[in-house]
Structures are given as C-alpha cells and as structure tokens.
C-alpha cells in the first residue's frame, strides 16, 4: 500500500434550468443554464494504491458514505491521470436527486488524485478531465464547470475551460431542500431534448436580462413546466411554498421554490419550505468553487 492521500471538497450544485449542447468533442459538449452551488457538498479522499496491492485491473475502489459504490466518471478521471487509488466520498446530499454528486465525485477525484500523485496539472486541466468524464458517462453536462466556479453560476456557453463561458448572479442565500426521490440524468439526456433546450434558452435570456435570484427562481419554475419535467410531489411543494407566502421571511425570498434538475427535489430560498410546513435540509449558497482541503503521507 502506497498510502499517499489527499482530500478535496466540492460544493453540491442544483441546476435551476438548462439547455443541452452535445458535441463530438466532450470538452466542447455541455449545457447552458444556471443554478446554485451549495455549502452541502462532497468530501472526496483519494488514497494511492500500489500496483501490487490492486486486486484487479480497475483503477479505482469507490466507497460512498462507507458503502461500496460505482460512479463511472470517477474511474475515468483516475485513468486519465494514470492513477490507481481508493476513493472515498462523504456527503449528506442524496445521490441521483439533482445535486450534482457525480460531478462532484469526478471533480474532487481529479483535484485529490493530482495532489496525491503529484501529477502537476493545472486547475483548468483538472476541470476539463472531470467534465469530459461526466459528459461521456451521460451523468451531467454543466455541473463540473459550475462546481469549479462556486457561487451562483450562469453557464453562458457550454463546455470545459477553453470552450465554456461562465458568469454568475452576485448574491448569497440560505437554501432549503427536500428530496422525494431520484430521476435518472442518463435517461433524460438520452431522450429527446429539443423542447427542454428551447425552454432552457428562453430561461437563460430572462436571467441575462435580469441577473437576480428571484428571476432565476421564476425562470426555473417556467422551465420545469415548459420542458415537461415537473413531477407531482415537486409541483405540490412549489405551490405550498408560494401559498405560505413571504411575511415570515427575513431575506425577502418567501414563496420562492423550484425544482432541481434532474431530481425529484424541490429547493427554496430563505425559509420557504419550513414556512410551508416541510422539514427541509438547510444550507447556503457556497461562495467558492472546489478546493483541496488536505494532503497526507
Ligand atoms: N446509491 C446510489 N444511488 C444512486 N446513484 C448511485 C448510487 N451509488 C452510485 N450511484 C451512481 O451515481 C451516479 C448518479 O448520477 P446522477 O447524475 O444520476 O446523479 P447526481 O450526480 O447525484 O445528480 P444530478 O442529477 O444533479 O446529475 C450514477 O452514475 C449512479 O450509477
Ligand atoms: C444535465 C444536468 C441538469 C444534470 O444534473 C446538469 O449537468 C446541467 O445543468 O447541465
């Protein structure tokens, strides 16, 4: 066992709306759209494994909150960096429910493997490697670049650094969320995305004209309906938050909830879900992007 290890933290990311932009080159493929990065995220620890200790040819043994798991993009990132490792993910976020856990796992693995194995790659190179892996696995299009940036990212042009262009909504907010279950990103992206992309482009125009959080939330609600992605439990919660209104909310965000893409998840600003009688998880928008948090021999 080599034992060298490093840990990275990657914020969660809920997409408020998006349009899909496939391309042959995975670095050029991606999405336009906007979302919130979250202080709830994923701690990714990469521990190097000697060739002699590896049980088989696979570059990775992955554990998610202590249980064995498979996230294809993680193995692809290690292969791209020519690293064999054990990867452990620790997170409070639900998986497969619209929080970008697969993107966080890929990006955190890139940062931590580069540090543990001293690969000498730059941040843009590591973001590109993670983005390509995520796109090729069909588990996300824009989460990685958003999670590398932090804040409230607007994805103006799709793709990895060198292709994509990012902006942001200059704001900070308390965020509440409730998850009713998973929605497969792979299935939605593999289907017909024409209506979704039209709705996503419209939402982006609205946010570019008025880059404020209430507009982001409103554009997100309209997108979910137009793209026909709204699921009944989420629609009910959005309605309940709107009905509970804004009188109790010191941040002035009362009544504002939307659906996280792509999951059976509702997120709200301020105290929207608590005011509506739900028992949400609570976090904040995250001011910064993915970062290394520790290295050890
Ligand atoms: N316990 C688990 N539940 C769901 N998916 C899991 C689990 N363990 C591993 N996975 C893998 O994690 C990945 C989840 O990716 P998916 O893109 O659906 O969700 P996500 O990244 O959490 O959210 P988003 O919808 O924002 O992309 C898949 O590759 C799936 O195979
Ligand atoms: C496709 C997606 C909604 C999956 O979470 C996300 O990666 C995005 O916004 O591109």
From TrEMBL:
Enzyme class, UniProt record, top EC level: transferase
Q: Does the keyword Kinase apply?
A: yes
Keywords attached to this Swiss-Prot or TrEMBL record, sorted alphabetically, are: ATP-binding, Coenzyme A biosynthesis, Kinase, Nucleotide-binding, Transferase
Which Gene Ontology molecular-function terms are recorded?
ATP binding; kinase activity
Q: Which family does it belong to?
A: Belongs to the GHMP kinase family. PoK subfamily.
From the Swiss-Prot or TrEMBL record, give the protein name: Pantoate kinase
From the broadest rank down, the organism's phylogenetic lineage runs:
Archaea, Methanobacteriati, Methanobacteriota, Stenosarchaea group, Halobacteria
Q: Which organism is it from?
A: Halorubrum aquaticum
Alphabetical list of Pfam families matching this protein: GHMP_kinases_N (PF00288)
Which SUPFAM superfamilies does the UniProt record give? Ribosomal protein S5 domain 2-like
GHMP kinase N-terminal domain residues? 82-151
Q: Do you know which InterPro entries this protein is assigned to?
A: GHMP_kinase_N_dom, PoK, Ribosomal_Su5_D2-typ_SF, Ribsml_uS5_D2-typ_fold_subgr
Q: In which pathway does it act?
A: Cofactor biosynthesis; coenzyme A biosynthesis
Q: Which Gene3D superfamilies match?
A: 3.30.230.10
Q: Which GO terms describe its biological process?
A: coenzyme A biosynthetic process
Q: Catalysed reaction(s)?
A: (R)-pantoate + ATP = (R)-4-phosphopantoate + ADP + H(+)
Q: What is its EC number?
A: 2.7.1.169
Q: Is-annotated flag, keyword ATP-binding?
A: yes
| Free-text function comment from the UniProt entry | Phosphorylates (R)-pantoate to form (R)-4-phosphopantoate in the CoA biosynthesis pathway.
